[in-house]
Amino acid sequence: MYKTLRYAGLFLLLALATAAEPVRVHHPQGELHAFLLVHDDTGKLLGTADEVNVGVGRVWRSRLTIRFLDGSVDDETATYTQAPTLRLLTDRHVQRGPYFPNPNDVSLDIASGTVIYRDLSHGTPDVSTEHMDLPADLGNGIMPMVLQNLPRGADELKVHYLVNAPKPRLVAIAIQPDGAADYHVGGTARQAAQLRLHVDIGGVEGMLAPLVGKQPPDMTAWLSAGDAPTLLRLRIFLYLGGPLLRMELASPQW
């Protein structure tokens, strides 16, 4: 019985991957260099981050580098296209240092379906390679662009994401409008659109996760309202089972 349920969950994941549609671009991302602050959920400063997005012809490169005060680093670089839909081409995500219980280095090549996982827990990396059917809506490394392109008036947008748990596995992320929130710029009140991000583990494990306390908490994103939505703030975790962090735009101080 258990084996039957396990295979049923596997077939469900494969069906989701096959049916996935890439996210249509309504707000193309231009070149940028954004500065961010990273806090824990109590407001304690944990580190800083840089988000850099540049284009060369039709291909764009996005890099988010988080530098923690304890020396840990979360560094992710993705290449993608964005006309007329968001299409991830490659992604490399490195997590190392004491903040991460399972330091690793994961590379994805979407066209070939190649996933290279390097376990950095020991002195010499333990490297494994596998081939996966990676869906067309994979959001690794390009989630800010995915969030900025939630269709106006949509109740939900679902994309897939390859997480390290500690080995790579495919999950779905449901993005839903969740009201609005006030913020201020120079004492002037503004309003941000608030989005809820729910992780669907899928299969039998996903059905059991809430019962055994392994369902990841919902994440939240805040975007400026209007014709040019800009990601202002995130409340996310960096690995399954990890604590929620707050990342928000920052301005240089003089």
Describe the structure.
The chain has 254 residues and is mostly beta strands. It has one domain (2-249). The chain has helices spanning 2-19, 143-148, 203-208, and strands spanning 32-40, 45-56, 59-68, 73-82, 86-96, 104-109, 114-119, 126-131, 157-164, 168-185, 188-200, 219-224, 231-236, 245-249. The longest helix is centred in the N-terminal third of the chain and has 18 residues, at 2-19. Residues 1-18 and 206-212 have low confidence and may be disordered.
In a nutshell, what does this entry contain?
The protein is mainly beta and 254 residues long. The protein has helices at 2-19, 143-148, 203-208; strands spanning 32-40, 45-56, 59-68, 73-82, 86-96, 104-109, 114-119, 126-131, 157-164, 168-185, 188-200, 219-224, 231-236, 245-249.
Helix content: 10-25%
Oligomer: single chain
Largest sheet: 14 strands, antiparallel
Mean pLDDT: 88
* Basic shape: globular
Give the class from helix and strand content and strand pairing: mainly beta
Order of helices and strands: HEEEEEEEEHEEEHEEE
Rg (CA only): 18 Å
Number of domains: 1
